[in-house]
Structure formats: C-alpha cells, structure tokens
Amino acid sequence: MIRRLGVIGDLHGEHERLARVLEWFAGQQLDALVCTGDVADGRGCINESCYLLQQANVATVSGNHDRWLLEDRVRHVADAHSIDEVSDDNLAFLKSLPRSLSLETSRGRLLLCHGVADDDLGKVWPGTSRSRIERSDDLDALIAAGRHRFLVNGHLHYRVLIDFQDMLLLNAGTLKGQFSGITIMDFEADVVAAYEVPDAGPPQRVREHLMLGASRHRFRSTADFDGGWEPVTLYRQAP
To answer: For each successive 10 residues of the chain (239 residues), what is the average pLDDT?
Structure first.
C-alpha cells in the first residue's frame, strides 16, 4: 500500500540528474518510485539511465520515444539514441516496460502511463486563453469505469494537476531541460509537493497543492473542457 510516492517524469536520458534524484529520494521515506517513461532520446546515456531505474526498482512505463527506439523509427529527433548503442540487457528492459501500470495507494488505485492508458501519444489539456483543448475519449472511459482515483502521466513535459470529480490527473513533466523537476504525492497528508532539479545539488521544493483541493474547479470529463481553465502548475513560476 503506497502512502508516499516519488514521481519522475519523462527521463530522456538524463542519467546524471536521475542519479542525484534517486539518491535524494532514498532519504524521503517513500513507499515506491515511478517514472512516466521516454527513457530514450536525450543528451545523456540511455544504458546508465536503464541501469539506474532497475537498480532503484523504479516502476516505469514505456513512452513513445522508447517505442520508436525499439522500432528503429523517428531517429531524426534531437539527441536521438541509436538502438545499436543499447546493451542487450537494457534492450530487454525497455521491451519489458508496460504501456500502463496500476498501483494501490492508501487513497485509491493509481494508473501510471505515458500518454493516456495504453495510448503513448494521448494528450489531455483543458485549454486556456492561449492554448488549445486536448480531449481524450480514453480518459473519459477510465473516469466512467471508476476503477482509478488517480492518473499519473507524462508526454506533455508540463507538471500540472487536472481535477476531475472522480479522478486527479498529475502530469509529471520531465527531467529534461531548464524546467526539470520531480514530485512527491503524499496520500496520507493529502499533499502534492513539487521540486525543481537543478544541474547541481539536491532537488529544491518550490510548490505544493492539496491533493484534493476543494476550491479548485473539477471537470466531470474532458467533454466539459471549455478553454477557460487556470492551470494548477507545479513550478516556482509557471514557464
């Protein structure tokens, strides 16, 4: 039963940041660690990234970049890894990653995925005055099924909470780039705490929200998205 969960977003080969994050997580009294995938394609070492995830027992799902690497497709993306540079053991690890994974928390079941459920390219975004709406039939089906209270995903590279009446969605963001960060979900304290991951030194706490904040607007499903949403971000200042 997970009471405190450490959440790592899309990895993109950031093995040096990952090593520091895992060392710091080890002192945070967590029950489990998860990663939203996209281990592949980034400035760092994919073999070291895979090794670190396995050594720390991080529950990891497959992202679209991992799928593309294994299919030897879309290798024109920036900082693309080559399948030839991945060791046999780490290829086996990447092939073993599920598209989605259910975990039991003290506040209900959590679905870990990269996009939405088994769609690694799925997006969810309520829309703002400056960004378009991204609805999801797959997410609406998950909400209607009522089996999961929480969904943790990545793909958008933007750490944010999206509130539904029967589900809380946490987009875990990414370790890549200048807005690199991680999250701790404390189900007992009802708190989601966000941390920045600098290029040197330990993660720094920058923001926290109540996990089930009563004052925030809650959608029934993505069909309710109207483009007037105010994002509940997990950054010091929203990028």
So the answer is: 98 97 98 98 98 98 98 97 98 98 98 98 96 98 98 98 97 97 98 95 96 88 96 90
The parent domain of residue 114 ranges over 4-233
Residue with tokens 């509130």: 163
| Complete DSSP assignment for the chain | -BSEEEEE-B-TT-HHHHHHHHHHHTTS--SEEEE----SSSSS-HHHHHHHHHHTT-EE---HHHHHHHHT--TTSTTPPPGGGS-HHHHHHHHH--SEEEEEETTEEEEEESSBTTBTT---B--BTTB--B--HHHHHHHHHT--SEEEE-SS---EEEEETTEEEEE--BSSSTT-EEEEEETTTTEEEEEE--SSSS-EEEEEEETT-TTS--BSSGGG--S----EE-SSS--
How would you label 144-165 residue by residue, b for 16+ Cβ within 10 Å and e otherwise? eeeebbbbbbbbbbbbbbbbbe
pLDDT at 239: 77
| Dihedral, CA of residue 17, residue 4, residue 113 and residue 138, to nearest 10 | -140
Q: Model's pTM, two decimal places?
A: 0.97
Q: Does residue 239 fall inside a structural domain?
A: no
CATH code assigned at 150? 3.60.21.10
Q: Does the residue 167 lie in any domain? A: yes
**Total domain count, the chain:** 1
Q: Is residue 238 part of a domain?
A: no
Is residue 88 in a domain? Answer: yes
